[in-house]
Amino acid sequence: MKVFVGLLAAVALAACNGAQEAPGDATNAPDAAAVVDSGVFSMPYLQRDLDNGLRVIIVPTDYPDIVTIQVPVQTGSRNEVEPGKSGFAHFFEHMMFRGTEKYPADEYLNIYKKAGANQNAYTTDDFTNYHAVFTKADLEKIIEVEADRFMNLRYSEDVFRTEALAVKGEYLKNSSNPISRGYERIRDLSFNTHTYSHTTMGFLEDIEPMPEQFEYSKLFFDRWYRPEKTAVILVGDLDAEATFAMVEKYWGKWERGDYVADIPQEGPLNGPIYDHVQWDAPTQPWLLVGFRGPAFEPEKVDMPAIDVISSIYFSDSSELYRKLVLEEQSVDQLLTYFPNRKDPNVLMVYARLTDVAQTAAVEQAIRETLATARSELVSVKKLAETKSRLKYGFTANLDNSGSIGSTLASFVQFERTPETINTLYRSYDALTPEAILEVANRYFVDDGRVIVTLSNDEAISGIDGMASIDDLVRPLSAAPAEQLADTAPAIASRAVASTDIAVPVEIVAQPAAGSPLIDVSILVHSGAAMDPPGKKGLAALTAAMLTDAGSEDFSIQEINAAMYPIASGFSAQVDKEMTRLSGQVHRDNLDVWYRLASSQLLSPGWREQDFKRVRTQLVNAVRTSLVGNNDEELGKEVLYSQIYGPSHPYGSLNEGHSADIAALTLDDVQRFYRQHYTIRNITLGLAGGYPETFAARLSSDLQALPEGTRQSLQLPQPKPLAANKAVIVDKETTSVAVSFGFPIDLKRGDKDWVALWLVRSWLGEHRNSTGQLYGRIREARGMNYGNYAYIEYFPRGMFQFQPDTNLARQQQIFQVWLRPLRNNNDAQFATRTALFELNTLIEKGMSEQDFVNTRSYLAKYVSLLMDGQSRQLGYALDSGFYGIDDFSDYVRKELDSMTLADVNRVIRENLRTDNMQYVFVSRDADDLRDRLVSGRASPMQYDAAQPEEVIAEDRMIEALPIVFDEQNVSVIDAEAVFQ
């Protein structure tokens, strides 16, 4: 199901509305303040247009100190109407960070660094959104610099050409995932004339000549970056009128434009259409079934009904999911992508298959499901549950100003008003089973269908995409919708247990009576480091059996069905010394959620069929999702395994090794559960608006577990390297991933940890353009997408901006991650550049100005790390592990007393550039091995003239010695990794 936003119920906003008065009557008049008092979006907001047509929307909240600015511009890949210009809207998003005469790029980034801000942008089919989260002390400065770049952007042709290389690097970073190729192909087949034929990234044949498009880029800016096509949204700890005055002051001189694009209209598809994509690297097969769908017109029934169809027929509570994923286990991922778009787009159902021989059967099951949607009325009860699911799913995302702002941006981009949300939800509320049936028959038809399959084979037997849905549709013969039965189980509350507590339960509590959301974390002090030899993956498999395999009382299908209307769940995260089972639920639904989650934890189902399914899914997570489809995460995880080695408890993958997982038994899992899931080995985390009696209820119910003891590890020190070592993962891929590092003796809570954390931030803050490595490799040379440094484990980095909590460890490594490079030469040069910068830092230390700026940045940035109820609870649990105070207090206290001398001492004592472990993922491993062993130079070539200082630096870097003995550079086939 598409995760989409909608209902903003008054009860969900009680915590952030506070005493803010309604600025005026409910209205959308351009020069009026507005508050909605009858729609689903009920937060008071100020909305006015400046004289130039800029729409300004300001939403005050009571979340202290934090503010977000969101600037959606009504241009995306849809607007790329000229031939050869696909991907240009996304490329131009990059250029918007290149500075102005008043605030050149370096100064612009420095302002954001001083503000401790999270800042970025993204481009979609229909719009481009620029966003930042920061503390309110910097509000006026942020408003000023944003206005300046939207009005006065300036860059040279050389800078333009350099950035074009980085855009190609971003294209390459997704290239190892076959679903990206499948999605690109299904869109290309679905359109002949409309610009939706290409993805936001564009076609590679258009990306490669982008360096030659400098003059066109100025035309693009002039056409689209205009006030009448833009909104400025500010959400947070704000005074609405004072904030509006700031926006008017800095944005009021922006001049209107008059360009209107002639978007080509698409004719009938005349399907069905079928194509097969052969994938070179090992992968599981994919089946993608697409249909020409409706435009997003919230006042009409079409797209709201499509959303409901997605949820009812394809979510994890659906009959299709039960059949394919739970019972037959022919599919391990079943998803839909039904996006809201300005013009008719592709509605896509896609499945990852466990066996290519099942492709035709899975395709038939999807056709039969859609035929059912066209033949039978959904029950009134199921429809009501779906509307409930939409509501509660949305409220779960609204526990901070940043989430509210990003939600508004996704809707404001259509008609530049939050009222789009109210219009949409009035349409949801008005939906009937008959209307849903009619919409299903309008769009899920043979002549609007495109099917793409993807596998390692030249073709897939038994499927040609021509089998009919229309022929399966039956005449409507169902009873009136009100009489249709529903099979979802009724979940009664378990009788409240005795309050006698024999064994005390450790609880970290963060009550917030005004919050409508409740977070529950069950932190088990055991993880992958406790996996026995030959059973790597046991901790992960045990956690998956508790959260995705049902209980004695309820099957997993019954649990999914009961969780469906409350839009909640029970999930697991496994690390070396921690396993977190958690869920977030609206307080309206706490009893239902707790009945389900507690039964999963305290009385697991241990069904053999579920065990086989979950075990297969875990193997596929290793073999396909990681090794097959994610070069970046693969390189980072191989680095950890190489640094610690197979005999160290940290030396294996958290998910396990595929051969070990395949050999695990249900007895193994039950034994691990009895040993580690004990009262004294658990810490409970509670946050939000939970009842006062809830903690006692949890403590009492947990008495059903064994008392046990707190598990702990006595870790050996990782074996130090006597020389540089490298592992090259040989894999069919279009780019080269690079990671390198070494163990460090510091962990959070140690005396010098915050100082080293500061150094890491200056060197390469994650997904942040202010880092030194980013500046020298990406910004100055345009070599790749990003370059970052870490002193704590940070998985899933390509998908998120902030680290996950509850990954606490006794031992950590220093790591540099260079996001994919175009070829071996670039990878070698980028690695040398990173070492050059690291050497310079060690030899010269950090400058006083860099130290002051980074310290100021982190003192504010720490508030953003802890923004939101869930993250605050996670950091509190981690602080217990490390024995420190509140994380933000701990960091700020250390920063306040820190000196530059302290930092430079910590650099000298903890960083180095010799005796490191390197990991590369490359398609030409032999060439890369020869480069490393021979020390071959790696000269750079550019599409644009570079400043003389860069060229001079390149001459030093291209031959920078990185000494590798031949026996210390090994090549391993990707298929053998984590086997």
UniProtKB/TrEMBL annotation:
Signal peptide, first to last residue: 1-21
Q: State the species of origin.
A: Woeseia oceani
* Molecular function, one GO term: metal ion binding
Q: Which residues form the Peptidase M16 N-terminal domain?
A: 57-187
* Record-linked PROSITE patterns: PROKAR_LIPOPROTEIN (PS51257)
Q: Which SUPFAM superfamilies does its entry note?
A: LuxS/MPP-like metallohydrolase
Query: Tell me, what's a Pfam family for it?
Result: Peptidase_M16
**Can the keyword Signal be found in this entry's annotation?**
yes
Q: Which family does it belong to?
A: Belongs to the peptidase M16 family.
Start and end residues of each Peptidase M16 C-terminal domain: 220-390, 664-806
Q: Which Gene3D superfamilies match?
A: Metalloenzyme, LuxS/M16 peptidase-like
> What name has this protein been given in UniProt?
Peptidase M16
Q: Does the keyword Glycosyltransferase apply?
A: no
